[in-house]
Amino acid sequence: MDQINTLLYLLAIADRQNRHRGWEGMKQRAEEKIAILKELVSLAPHLRRFRSQLYMAENRRTTAICMIRSSLD
Question: Does 28 score more than 70 pLDDT?
Fold first, then answer.
């Protein structure tokens, strides 16, 4: 349980960091959240909330990558 609480704390920190760095910050924040959420899902696979958050973070990362690529064109 302590490991889950630590990961939840890291998840909250990852959500606050890089907030004002545009698409690159959004991508980096999503990648950090994905790593933490994957660990949470592996520790508590029965918790649907973490799986849905992981899905949303992966969507944000994909959106950020697409926006970065389109701004480079």
Answer: yes
